[in-house]
Each structure stands twice: as structure tokens, then as C-alpha cells.
Amino acid sequence: MELFFSPLACSMAARIAFAEASAEVKLIEVDPRTKRVLATGETYLAIHPLGLVPALRTDDGAVLTENASILQFIADEFPAARLAPSESDRIGRAKLRQWLSFVGTELHKGLMIPLLGRDTPPEVKAWVLSKYASRVAYLDESLAGREFLLDRFSVADAYLFTVLNWTQATPEIDLAVYPNVKAYLERMRQRPGVADSLALEVPLFRAEIARRKAA
Ligand SMILES: N[C@@H](CCC(=O)N[C@@H](CS)C(=O)NCC(=O)O)C(=O)O
Q: From the CB of 31, is ligand 1 less than 6 Å away?
């Protein structure tokens, strides 16, 4: 399989899922500014017309997009890694979809993307914070006394960690106010699958920033 990614973007969740499953995947870096495959210069728009990462090309050539779908696919492809509740656990499966949806809509798109935007007007950031800070408070309550979103590590944690990792670039979100979220982030960073993914992507992210500055 081939995973199209950009460093430290939401595609890192899929990288973490592959790492947690000890599964092989070919990583193909996409420059988010040019929308080209970094190594070859080929246009990424031929893979995903929206130019968004992640995209996953399966061994039989199917192209999957959208984190929630890709992450559930990875979990189902490698069941021994137990990255999702089993098929027979209907409620567990629904809870997994619930958290993937929460992370994707409330946190990723609702809260973080506007805060991370270099050209987001300050009044929009203020509005987003006033509306979406409740989501972080809800997450903090939900993580009280829990190690993971579900009973064990799942692909929803891979996605949640990836999105929360961006709080390093959003001083507007003070994690001291959310001790369970802060502790969760610190715990996740210790997991080998997460630590290895970060170690690989941080230098690539720095190189991406350097390219952007040089352009
Ligand atoms: N709904 C998509 C969103 C993917 C997405 O927002 N990807 C970002 C990186 S985190 C991206 O590629 N942004 C580049 C752009 O907006 O042009 C999903 O969940 O996969």
C-alpha cells in the first residue's frame, strides 16, 4: 500500500496506525504548497483532485481518501493489531466512529484549522475559540481516568494525537486548563508507534518550512 502524506499533517494518523500494526506501507510525501509529489514532481491532484492528504492507494489500485475511512480500513486490514473494536462489538464500533467523527469535525476542521491558518483574521480566531473551546473541555472530561478514547489504543487515538499535536502551534489553547488532555498527549508521545512517527516527520516538516521560506 502507498500512503500519500505531508509532514505532521493529519496524514500522520495513518502513519501511526501502520506503525502500531507493524505493517509495511510506502510513504509518498506531498508538498502541500505545490500539490506535487516531492520525490518525482508529479501532480498529486491526479491522486486526489482536492489535493488533500491523506490518500491511501491499496495494492489493487483503489484510492481511498478521508482520515476516518482510511483509518478504519487500516484497522480492518490488520485485525491482529486490534486498532478497532471487533465486528461483533456493535457499540464499540459505533463509539469508534463517534470519536473519529468528533476529532474530524469538531477538533480538526472546527477548531484547529482556523486557529492554524496564517491568514485567519483575529476576530474569526476569537469566534472559533468562543465556540469550540467547549469541545476541548468535553474531551478533557471524557479522558478523565482513561488512558485512551476507547478501552484500548485505537485508530481514533492515532487521529486525536495527531490533531492535538498541533496545539504546539496554537498558543490560544492553554493545555494547562485541560490537564487530562495534556497528560494524554504526553502519554501518547511515549508510545513507540507515535514516537517513531514523530521522529520521522519532524525533520521533514522542518525541511518543508525551509522550502516554503525559500520559495
Ligand atoms: N476531510 C479530510 C481533510 C484532510 C485535510 O484537511 N488535510 C489537510 C492536511 S491536515 C490538507 O491536505 N490540507 C491542504 C490544503 O488544504 O490544501 C480528511 O479527513 O481526510
A: no
